Structures are given as C-alpha cells and as structure tokens.
C-alpha cells in the first residue's frame, strides 16, 4: 500500500504499470467506503467472505470481480454479498480479461451481470470504455459458474500441454470442458446460452490456451513433476482453479452432475494421481453422444 501511494507502482502485481494518480490508496475501510456510490470487490475467493466481514454496512451497489466459490460452503460470490449486505444490489463482472492487457488498455470485452437490468445498464456505462467493452446479462448464475469453472479446465489443458499431448487434445478438453461447465451451470439455475458467450466460452478459451494463464501454467508445472506447493509458492498470483475444483465436485455431487475432467484434475491436485494417469482415465471413458441435451447431467 505504501509503495502504491508513494511511487504509484504495486511491487507485487503488474509492477511495471503505473497506478493512475486519481486512485487514492488506503487500508482504512471507513475511508474507502466514505461517500462511496459503488463498491467493487476484487480479491481471491478464499478471502472474499473475510474481506466483506471487515467492512461496515453497505447499501450501495456492489460488484464482484472474483471468479470462484466460497470454500467450505461452495457459495457463489454474489450469494456471499447478498448474505452480508442484504440491502445492496449485486452485480458480477466476468469474461476473458487478463489483467495486464486490461491495464495496458488493450481491447477487451467482458460481461456485467445483474438481475436488475437497470443496474446492469448503469454499470455498463459507468465501468465500460472504448477499450473495455462491457455487455450486460441478467444470468448471474451462468456468468459466475462460467468464470469459476473455466479455471478448472485450464488446469486440465495445462496438464495436457505439459505432457506434450498436442493441440488436438487441448481443443478436445476445451470443448468437453465447456459441456461440463454448462451442465453444472444449468443445474444451479443458469442458462445454457450464457456459457456460449464471453463469460463462458470466451473466458474458457483465453484461460485454457493463453500464455498469461496462471491455472494453465500450474497444470504445466504439475505435468513437469513439480509439486503443487512448490508451483504455487513460486508466484504471489493465485490460481483460483485449485479451490474451485473442490467446490465444483461438491456441487456436482449435490446436484447429480458428472464432471469427469474436473474429477481427474481433483485427483491430481488432492489425491496424488499422476497427470499421465489422469489423462489416461479420461481417454479410457466410454464414448457417448455429443448431442446430448444440456439438461442431461451425465453426458
């Protein structure tokens, strides 16, 4: 905080990019929230609830920019906000958005989702720009599930890429991964069309193939034989896919949804299964119909 305030540079994240002079830096929640007309929460999912708990009452609109589930209770971030601040309108910001490219004002498209269409339109105008193009959506569930689970599939593509399985394998994982994400999103109340948009397919393609993807990089490190602890400690950046796997599998079991790719990623992360054996398990699954209906939970 002191470095950002004095030198306008964050020494930990995007250390070569200036923080605009109009940004006031503070660790005092009361100062940060004083006269606020909008609150944006952008912290890793495992710290999300604790961050909100440190803040006082909030009644202005709240935007969650976090892609994940609350560990333990497996709740979406908008649900955590609604529980903590029931009087605040909630929106979520998601989509294919590597932070470095956004900070460099490179063209980016994202989604602002809220059940309140008027709020979504207001935030679209307030937060969007020529280079940061925002689309509105009312499907909060679909947008949040897509943003969370794409990290899990990116871990899988990282495992495949680290094993040198080729681009065909990566494309197959991305495509079947999207089917898994859509199945769980629909089971939780989301809409299939949302997962074909920016917050679903768009974010998945970026995170599962991009060179700046933390989750894909972690998968590649695991495939090279590095331990999860060593790979995660090598960077301050958080790979959200790790806690998300556990939540995704718990939600899938609760709702009777099959997530074979997520299950194998979980086996590598938590059960000591080798990446090669995990990919072999996927290849050994019985072939099924691709044109299964979205509502079918075990396709």
CATH level-four homologous superfamily name of the largest domain: NAD(P)-binding Rossmann-like Domain
Shape: globular
Q: Oligomeric form of this entry? A: single chain
Termini separation comes to 48 Å
The counted number of beta strands is: 5
Q: Give the helix tally.
A: 14
Major sheet characteristics: 5 strands, mixed
CATH class of the largest domain: Alpha Beta
Q: Per DSSP, what share of the residues sits in E-state strands of 2 or more residues?
A: 5-15%
List keywords for this structure.
299 residues; alpha/beta; Rossmann fold; N-(1-d-carboxylethyl)-l-norvaline Dehydrogenase, domain 2; 2 domains; 5 strands; 51% helix
Q: Your description of this structure?
A:
This protein is α/β, with parallel strands linked by helices and 299 residues long. The longest helix has 23 residues, at 140-162. It has helices at 2-7, 29-33, 45-53, 77-84, 99-103, 117-127, 140-162, 167-187, 198-209, 214-223, 228-233, 241-255, 260-270, 275-283; strands at residues 39-41, 62-64, 90-94, 108-113, 132-137.
């Amino acid at each position: 905080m002191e470095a950002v305030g004095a030198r306008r540079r964050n020494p930990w994240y995007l250390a070569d990019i200036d923080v605009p002079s109009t940004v006031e830096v503070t660790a005092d929640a009361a100062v940060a929230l004083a006269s606020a007309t909008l609150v944006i929460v952008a912290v890793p999912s495992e710290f999300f609830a604790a961050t909100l708990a440190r803040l006082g009452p909030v009644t202005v609109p709240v935007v969650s920019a976090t892609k994940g589930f609350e560990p333990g209770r497996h709740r979406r971030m908008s649900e955590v906000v609604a529980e903590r601040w029931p009087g605040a309108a909630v929106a979520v910001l998601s989509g294919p958005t590597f932070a470095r490219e956004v900070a460099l004002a490179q063209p980016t498209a994202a989604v602002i989702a809220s059940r309140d269409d008027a709020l979504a339109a207001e935030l679209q105008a307030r937060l969007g720009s020529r280079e940061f193009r925002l689309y509105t959506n009312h499907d909060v569930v679909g947008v949040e599930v897509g943003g969370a689970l794409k990290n899990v599939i990116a871990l899988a593509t990282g495992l495949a890429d680290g094993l040198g399985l080729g681009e065909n394998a990566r494309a197959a994982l991305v495509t079947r991964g999207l089917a898994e994400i859509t199945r769980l999103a629909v089971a939780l109340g989301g809409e299939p069309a949302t997962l074909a948009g920016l917050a679903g397919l768009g974010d998945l393609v970026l995170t599962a193939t991009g060179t700046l993807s933390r989750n894909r990089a972690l998968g590649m490190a695991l495939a090279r034989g590095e331990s999860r602890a060593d790979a995660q400690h090598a960077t301050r950046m958080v790979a959200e896919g790790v806690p998300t796997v556990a939540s995704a599998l718990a939600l899938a079991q609760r709702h009777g949804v099959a997530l074979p790719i997520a299950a194998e990623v979980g086996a590598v992360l938590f059960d000591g299964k080798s990446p090669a054996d995990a990919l072999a398990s996927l290849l050994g699954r019985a072939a099924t119909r691709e044109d299964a209906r979205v509502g079918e939970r075990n396709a």
